[in-house]
Amino acid sequence: MREPNAIDFWRGLALVTIFINHIPGNTFERYTYSQYGISDAAELFVFLAGWSIGIATRGRDGAPEPRLKSVLRLLSRTIEVYRAQLTVMLMALAMIAGTALILDNPLILEWHNAGTFFADPIQTVVGVVLLSHQLGFFNILPLYVILLGIAPVFVLLARLSRVAALALSAALYFASLVEEWNLPSWPGEGDWFFDPFCWQLLLVLGFVLQDWNRESDTLRIWARRLMPLGIVVVLVGIVLSVLELRPDPLLVPEPRLIFTFDKTYLSPARLIHFLGVLLAFQAVYGLVAPRMGPAVQYLARLGRNSLAVFSMGSVLSLGGQLVRFWTGGGLLVDILVISAGIWALGFTAWFVEWRSRKPRPRE
Amino acid sequence: MTSRPTLWMAALVLAAGLSPAPAQEPAPAPQPTIVSPPNAAAAPGAEPLDPSLSPECRVPGSKLYTLAKLRAVKMALKDKRPVRVLAVGSTSAGPGASATYPMKLETALERSLPDVDVVVEARGLQGEIASGAAERLRSMVADVEPDLVIWQVGTHDALARVEIDAFGEALDETVKWIKSHEMDVVLVDPLYTASLADDAYYSSIVRKVQEVAAREGVPLVQRYEAMRYLSGRAEKSEGHMLGRQFRLNDLGLRCMAEHVTRAITLSLLQPDTTGTAGPVLKSDLPAAVRDPNGPQVNPTPDGH
């Protein structure tokens, strides 16, 4: 297993944050960094996924692996994520239905978009498999499936020209923002919670920046210089979110998504804030790593096994929600739920690594 | 508590089997055994059921809605342009329903507002009003720009057991915001089910929705009260393999479009300053409409 590094560490932090924020109403929610900025852990998670693709599609020496191999690698990862999404969705639906039965309480069936499945399973099961039916809080992996699915285009294009890859990505982003292109939800009306046409920009940005960073020091030097700007952006973000100041979507000029703080379409304010966060926190890992050994080890281990940890985290946070509803919540329940969850995430990561270390039994 | 409904059901079954012989029982259900839900229908001289609703959905008006003016919708009617409706919340009309809730809603609204074109857009709203969902609702409203927002609210916040006051404040603020952009709002409070009848927290969420509706002067569809009323009625129809609560839930979903439509059409008849007449309704108006003093608020849902 690789040593802890900044990427795994931050990804681990994003995973823990997403786990906590996916148990809405819990006491610890207000202590996650998502509450103190315009962007949140989702941006970090997608950006780091792009960065990791950059690492995965090259050898240790930085030489690009054969094109076909990269395409197949990304395809295989897409299938893995798709499989994880189906598994997690099925478990979530069963947990919701099971709890409704045990508590004799049909209200639970109305849990974030699950009602459609129970009322109309014929259409909805098709929607689940097509990823066009998503439960609330279970909509990051469908985004990730699409992003990995289209990643080969950008990876191969970037080998010819990084600028071209980034330009294509940015063009798609702005066009989607202006035209409000998104994938439809089905059955039912509305669109995806995370618009892949917009969110792809973060993945490509992560990938391109990793590539650039590997080749030259320019990025690092400029990132250092711009750190004060990042800190200003972060401070502004804190003020805006604490005071709950945001543009009124009915008062901003058209195209309004350019001006609002919209999560679905990753509006520019969120993107700028996220870039500010990157600049402001670039040096933090270097400061923290030698001083907080166990925490860094723990988070990096989560980050190394992000898909398994994310999937378990989704199921655990739903479990946490149901436990909170059933017991009525409260500080004690929250402490138990969150600490049990954080332990279970760590165990998941450890278990995945143990399983891959373990020699397979002889035939 | 758990054995009571079973006893009561057993009594019902017995009563149904023996009904021709002993004629001394006028009420459909033996009242003393019922703790929750209360059986208002059985009381003589009770408020009549709203006859404009289909039989299985019939509830007295005071249990079903509080009314208030709908200025933007009236304006659209006056201008003879289509009424754009944004329906927020679950879109299901119950398992196996032939039409979804938005489809039923559009049909029901067009039936009770003759010669008016109603366009219903429906959206699910993930997350809690107290954290994030209110913001997403604003984007949705900006996207659709409706005349009327029909908002099933409170379920997700109740499931997450968010702080009552945080919920109330966020809801109030959002309703204010919608109104400030010259759009109407109709709130629909969360469903009733027996296992939550004594849950003080849940009752206070329902009450909070009522409070906000009253404070902001917007119509409210009292799904909780209506379902509680329906749950008290004797059930002659088929059972449900998952039990009474799930059957009641299906019924609540099936009836929602009708109930919402009723609250809207009656709200449109609320007298306003310009004195324009609303659309003509076929049925007689229940007492609630004749009360010109704005919205009326019913007693709290956990009154027993």
UniProtKB/TrEMBL annotation, chain A:
Presence of the UniProt keyword Transmembrane helix in the record: yes
Matching Pfam families: OpgC_C
Keywords, alphabetical: Membrane, Transmembrane, Transmembrane helix
InterPro entries, alphabetized: UCP028704_OpgC
Keyword Lipoprotein assigned: no
Transmembrane region(s): 81-103, 135-156, 163-181, 193-210, 222-243, 271-290, 302-323, 329-352
Superkingdom of the source species: Bacteria
Protein name, UniProt field: OpgC domain-containing protein
Protein source organism: Methylobacterium planeticum
From TrEMBL, chain B:
Xref: Pfam families: NonGDSL
Signal peptide: 1-23
Ranges of biased composition (kind: Low complexity): 37-51
Gene3D superfamilies, sorted: SGNH hydrolase
Residue ranges of the region described as Disordered: 21-55, 275-304
Keyword entries, A-Z: Hydrolase, Signal
Compositionally biased residues, Polar residues: 295-304
Keyword Hydrolase: yes
InterPro entries: Ester_Hydrolysis_Enzymes (IPR051532), NonGDSL (IPR057572), SGNH_hydro_sf (IPR036514)
MF terms in GO: phosphatidylcholine lysophospholipase activity
Cross-referenced PANTHER family: SGNH HYDROLASE-TYPE ESTERASE DOMAIN-CONTAINING PROTEIN, THIOESTERASE 1/PROTEASE 1/LYSOPHOSPHOLIPASE L1
Name of the protein in question: SGNH/GDSL hydrolase family protein
